[in-house]
Amino acid sequence: MSTSYPTRKNPKTIILAIVVVATIAVASFAILTWPRPSLKVYTYDSFMLWGDNPETIDETVFGQFEIEHGIDVEIIRLPTDANGIVSRLVAESENPQADVVIGIDNILILQEAAKSVLTPYSSPNVDLIDEEVVDALDPDHYLIPFDLGLVSIIYETNFINSTSHPTIENLTLSNLATEEFATSLVTENPHQSSPGLAFLLSQITIAEKILETDWTDWWDIVKDDINVQAGWTEAWTIWHDSSERNMLVSYGTDPAYSSYYSGEAPDIAVAPFHYNDNDYSWMQIEGIGLVKNGPNQALAKQFIDYCLTAQVQQYIALNQWMFPANPNIELDDAFQYALHPEEVNLLNTLMPSSEIAANLTQWLDDWDLIMA
């Protein structure tokens, strides 16, 4: 891959630095005063750690809330993804430790386990978010949108472009199944990775709803050629380091990240799927929710309200590299290179949530049998 694409920061290293700084700060503070009450927020390991100052991002984003309420906000980054967060909440359900959770998405919330550890909350600030996005995540408000992004194929333009590979401009599953493209593709395990699951659902939706074919046929064709990694970080590493794997299942904001940190036009691009003169992509919506029977319910609700305002939402684009759920936030110029939701038809709208909930386990079982 091109060396001009900036090297991603390692969130595990950053988390260690945050823990060290926080420990020193707490130890120093404890000499002078009693500990303040705290609000505990569970999230995944890389939450808000992709920006310029990851070591101080929690204070920057949530410090004002701490001052206003005289508390400490503890952002607890669990060494897992959203599935692991739900498992942790289920394990603690008899004695909840967290107050708020961030990162459960519009697929995971369809599972009963996720809803069982949350309490619906209709924030007075929900009107700051487009109603369509709110309903697409969860019309019952077990979750309220925090950020969103499009899961698509990204590719390295020095190896794949409209001149060398004209079909990349109007990518179809048939194109992607050719040996040249399939042997270039890296994706993620749908059991372990939210973009990996979004890609599987994209493929199923196109096959079943647009092409009216058996979705398993495509995987039978490509199973020996594509590279499936456990998670996004592992997939990105293979894609970045290999001169043969030039396509990756990732997010449509990746070119914006590349441009922002290189200071140049990116040498990666996004290829949404293309059918019937329309581009298609899957929207992932990550939510913020109230933990059921959490220790600080009233304060947690106020924190959720706060997270929907510009005071928090303004930091999402350049630290999460997702779109803020609040549509009134001005984006950096680098986002001119991103794939925006209004530029595509959303595959989510073709696949009812009820159909996903009823069939997801079987789809994953079928995928396992094919890929075994």
Q: What is the radius of gyration?
A: 21 Å
The total count of helices amounts to 15
**Architecture per CATH nomenclature, i.e. the level-2 architecture of the largest domain:** 3-Layer(aba) Sandwich
- Count the E strands: 13
The tally of domains stands at: 2
In the predicted model, the low-confidence regions spanning at least 5 consecutive residues are 1-6, 20-31
**Overall geometry:** globular
CATH superfamily of the largest domain: Periplasmic binding protein-like II
User: What's the mean pLDDT score?
Assistant: 92
Under CATH at level 1, the class of the largest domain stands as: Alpha Beta
- Could you estimate the helical fraction of the residues in percent? 25-40%
Distance between the termini: 29 Å
Structural class: alpha/beta
Q: Which percent range describes the beta-strand content?
A: 15-25%
Order of helices and strands: HEHEHEHEHEHHEHHEHEHEEEHHHEEH
Specify the oligomeric state: single chain
CATH fold name of the largest domain: D-Maltodextrin-Binding Protein, domain 2
Largest sheet: 13 strands, mixed
What key attributes describe this structure?
13-stranded mixed β-sheet, D-Maltodextrin-Binding Protein, domain 2, 372 residues, globular, alpha/beta
What does this structure look like?
Strand 10 and strand 11 (278-291) form a beta hairpin. Strands 1, 2, 3, 4, 5, 6, 7, 8, 9, 10, 11, 12 and 13 form a 13-stranded mixed beta sheet that branches. This protein has helices at residues 11-32, 57-69, 82-91, 112-116, 131-137, 173-177, 179-182, 194-210, 216-222, 232-241, 254-262, 297-307, 310-313, 316-320, 353-371; strands spanning 38-44, 72-78, 100-105, 118-119, 144-156, 185-188, 227-229, 247-251, 268-271, 273-275, 278-291, 323-324, 345-346. The chain is globular and about 65 Å long. It is α/β, with parallel strands linked by helices and 372 residues long. The protein has two domains: 11-147 and 286-321, Periplasmic binding protein-like II (D-Maltodextrin-Binding Protein, domain 2, 3-Layer(aba) Sandwich), CATH 3.40.190; 150-283 and 337-371, D-Maltodextrin-Binding Protein, domain 2 (3-Layer(aba) Sandwich).
